[in-house]
Amino acid sequence: MSLMFLAEGDAPSIVPVELADRPARELGTLYAAGRVVQRDLVAAHMWFNIAALRGDRDAARQRQEVSAEMTKDEIAQALHWARAWLDSQAPVPT
Q1: Which of 29, 49, 51 is nearest to 40 (CA)?
Q2: Predicted TM-score of the model (pTM)
Q3: Which of 13, 21, 33, 43 falls between 20 and 30 A from 85, CA-CA?
Q4: Which of 86, 87, 61, 63 is nearest to 75 (CA)?
Q5: pLDDT on residue 15
Q6: Nearest residue to 83 via CA among 29, 23, 25, 9
Q7: Within the chain, which residues score under 50 in pLDDT?
């Protein structure tokens, strides 16, 4: 399986190339359930957070459910990854 890095320096926050076009909430669901990818609650929280920031209320609910199984440090890591990913997607000023 080929992998694509989303943010330099955040090696765990990767998405298989085959899934790169999937919506953020769907990626969160795959990581939370361990379907197609290894179960990773930090990555699931990250993707649910990104989807929630884009207005997806179901993703916000799912993020809450996942966070109930996580430590504070894991949640902090997920938030860091989400910020790094969002920053990497921002347009570069010209």
Answers
A1: 29
A2: 0.80
A3: 33
A4: 63
A5: 75
A6: 9
A7: 1-13
User: 3-state DSSP call for residue 10?
Assistant: coil
- 19-42 tens-digit pLDDT: 888 899 999 999 999 988 999 999
Tokens describing residue 90: 């921002």
Q: Please write down the HEC assignment for all residues of the chain.
A: CCEEECCCCCCCCEEEHHHCCCCHHHHHHHHHHCCCCCCCHHHHHHHHHHHHHCCCHHHHHHHHHHHCCCCHHHHHHHHHHHHHHHHHHCCCCC
Distance, CA of 75 to CA of 72 (rounded, Å): 5
Cα–Cα dist 60/17, whole Å:
25
Cα–Cα dist 32/72, whole Å: 17
Largest CA distance in the chain: 43
For position 7, what pLDDT does the model report?
Answer: 44
